[in-house]
């Protein structure tokens, strides 16, 4: 019997209630241990497991999805198992909803007799969610694909009171990937487009990353800004954080270096001109940023208030592998003038 036949047969074989309740004891089963000892190529092993997950027993497939998550943590290529694992997660969420609706733990024996997959999903789901978390944290494209599945986010919201790890899945689904914000500096006639990857939907997180990118690009002292704090920037990026950095994060305070403002128009005898107005709140969502010509747009100016925030409270680290970053490109002068003119033009 080949290794694939062995592990595939185990994954598709039926789990009983005691096995489900024993949880990670499954990893110690002879079939799983033999499979793990035989691995010389983690990617090939994950591909073999992934091929059986969707047709497998709900509990055993969920636990082997967890094994794939462990292999990814140990250096396996995330793109190999991620889509199969996410489909197992979605199946588990649907079944877990029915488990909760039909009485949950208080009716588990009866549920297993009537519809055992509901109970299997309940016991496997916490482990599937851990695997999904580690994979989604590493794979931006997988996050985007998961957001395109309309049923997942409502299920996560509904079931979060019953499965603690769903908080992290929900936060990952809310990350800003592939989004852009335009920043216009009316005084210096400069403009920048910042692309967002893995940025939490709290503007303070964007501010921390954006002001560092702007000062590295435009040079020290741009708009009178003080240098950024390297520790605060590394925390915002979730880059190279040590255990000591995590311990210190509770006392870490970041602050405003640049002014991020709503776009406005000032009218006078010389005509109208685009100007910054009120400071845009750091606690807001990107969805609240004004959209100008189809692009979320804020104005840059010198700091007008002394805003500060606790990074660990505003955007706590969700997973050690989740990289948060912004890319920056400066707009040509003619494009900046076009945007500023369009903002100052009369409506209609």
Written description of the protein model:
The protein is α+β, with helices and mostly antiparallel strands and 348 residues long. It folds into 2 domains: 3-173; 179-344, no CATH class. Helices cover 49% and strands 16% of the residues. It is built from 16 helices and 9 strands. The chain has helices at residues 3-12, 17-22, 30-38, 42-53, 58-73, 82-101, 108-114, 116-136, 140-147, 152-159, 166-173, 203-218, 230-237, 243-248, 311-314, 333-344, and strands at residues 179-185, 190-197, 254-255, 258-268, 271-279, 291-292, 295-302, 308-309, 325-330. Strands 1, 2, 4, 5, 6, 7 and 9 form a 7-stranded mixed beta sheet that branches. A two-stranded antiparallel sheet has the order 3-8. A hairpin with a 2-residue loop joins strand 4 (258-268) and strand 5. Helix 1 (3-12) packs antiparallel against helix 3 and helix 8 crosses helix 11 (166-173). The longest helix has 21 residues, at 116-136. It is elongated, with a radius of gyration of 25 Å. It starts with a helix and ends with a helix. The mean pLDDT is 94.
Instruction: Please bin the fraction of helical residues.
Output: 40-55%
Mean pLDDT: 94
Low-confidence stretches: none
Count of individual helical segments:
16
Shape: elongated
Strands, count = 9
Class based on secondary structure composition and strand pairing: alpha+beta
SSE pattern: HHHHHHHHHHHEEHHHEEEEEEHEH
